[in-house]
Amino acid sequence: MSQTALIGVDWGTTSMRLWRFSKTGDIIERERSDRGILKVADGKFREILEAVASDSVAPDVPILMSGMIGSRQGWIEAPYVFCPADIATLADHLQPVPGGINAQIVPGVALRDVGGRRDVMRGEETQILGARLGRGRQLIVLPGTHCKWVLIEDGRIRDFVTFMTGEMYQALRRHTILARLMPDTDTGPDVEAVRRSFAAGLTASLDGEARLMQSLFGIRARGLFDELAPELAPAALSGLLIGAEISEGLALSRRWGLAEIAPLIIGGDILIERYQTAFQQAGISTTTGNEDAGALGLWRIAQQRNLVSQASAPQ
Amino acid sequence: MSQTALIGVDWGTTSMRLWRFSKTGDIIERERSDRGILKVADGKFREILEAVASDSVAPDVPILMSGMIGSRQGWIEAPYVFCPADIATLADHLQPVPGGINAQIVPGVALRDVGGRRDVMRGEETQILGARLGRGRQLIVLPGTHCKWVLIEDGRIRDFVTFMTGEMYQALRRHTILARLMPDTDTGPDVEAVRRSFAAGLTASLDGEARLMQSLFGIRARGLFDELAPELAPAALSGLLIGAEISEGLALSRRWGLAEIAPLIIGGDILIERYQTAFQQAGISTTTGNEDAGALGLWRIAQQRNLVSQASAPQ
After folding, report:
1. Most buried residue among A179, A227, A230, B131 by CB atoms closer than 10 A?
2. Predicted local confidence at residue B31, as pLDDT
């Protein structure tokens, strides 16, 4: 382990990912844990971290963390920095963790726009810095429980909006009458039928006219008349919600004055595929980010702060 | 109790209302119970009914019921009749309850429109018949867990759409991150501040442009920065959702070709007030229905079916 130059941790509400980096910035070890911050009792963050790192953490190896670990419910609060924010802003505001551990937390990013609208992110700012940011205006979409649409301008986080799509899906799917006709698992055995059901959901809400509220109950009604199989209902709901999100998001992107709407999508495989399908159905071409965007973002922030060597430049 | 000409029951998922009618159609007794059909164990509907009627049910007094009591989860399924449906359609399809009890259930109404859209109602059809239905086209809105927007044409239920607004409110308020900053009760002690918070929610979603998905998380973000007091957050969420519903519903009403959009609102007091406020903010004038619309509808269906005297005509 003497080869380790940095330990990077993306520590969210429900899970945690950990990477060890070599001196040249290569990832030499990856760990994943379901011990999100909400599952850590009595503030025992250090114990969990050391257990996941499967080694006691060496005092000379810096640790850099991002995500909800820096929230009020986390290890220690890393106060938000405000938009516009770039890598220097974030690196300048790392929050040291108390207790004699060589660890710091990347701050989240907050927004207050001219109309007084508020928004916040924690963790996504680091994934964004792991992406290839060019000059000019650029759109990044990060699907998830709280999906973010982010306007980047010359490498800075300029504006963003959170869509609670993933959480709405779970709340409607588990805690409304729609739950009654849905099986416990999200996808059925017939992958093609699931895809078609998702696409049909998209069609109903992607047309630019607001129809989400009136379309949800149709899932129930079609189920009652055996016109929608229970195992296809979750995909129909997912399509409706993602379609409504993209419909709103595209209107937002036009207000942002993007010359071309061609989002970079960063996230897990299943969600990336669904969002790619949805954008494609809306006639929008996309690119997808490196799965290790979060790791790469942590490495770059560590470089910026001189926690690791400047020379290396991993891709 | 020999004066009783009819017992009417509106038996829903979470509660039940019961009325005794005199021979002239006057309501001589009202009962309310929280024993909705989901809280009735082992199919003991008759026992619950007799307990709520606070008397053993006399065999010569007809009982007419509406609502989810006629669903698959109820006493016995009363198959849906299809749109267009009027009082004759409903009265012709009453479903007798088995077991030697003089009781029948009003069927629900189902829709399948030209585009294949499906929808269903149970209970609202009876409330609608309790309203004053004129000639021509008319809009009725019935707020609730599943709010219905109904197009009436010459006294017939012609078309309708269900908005899951009430259930979305509960699911988002109780089962997402928004729950964390909300108190258990829905309204704070400062009634005027709650009204303003509701109105602000309406403003954000009533403008005709779809913004619901991106506005929900703002409740959380403003809470984080102490810009929205916890006791005002539920009203803000309610405003956002009802505003989005009305925005969609007004577009729908225009597609329905209503000469004038001036809905009749039927429902409980608190919801009626909120919907009146919302319509007013959208520049739409409303009228409100009799609180006993459900009772009156049951009486009229009983008359139509000759279960009670034709002569009486209660208002």
Report:
1. B131
2. 94
Residue B1 pLDDT: 47
Distance in Å, alpha carbon of A113 to nearest chain B alpha carbon? 12
Q: How high is the ipTM of this complex?
A: 0.92
Question: With respect to CATH, is domain A6-110 assigned 3.30.420.300?
Answer: yes
Residue of A nearest to B167 (CA): A176
According to CATH, what is the number of the domain A165-288?
Answer: 3.30.420.310
Indicate yes or no: CB of B175 within 8 angstroms of CB of A170: yes
User: Any CB–CB contact under 8 A between B270 and chain A?
Assistant: no
| B120-173 residue pLDDT tens | 999 999 999 999 898 999 999 999 999 999 999 999 999 999 999 999 999 999
Q: Please tell me the class of the B6-130+292-304 domain.
A: alpha beta
**Which residues, in sequence order, are bridge partners of residue A105?**
A65, A95
Mean pLDDT of A2-6: 86
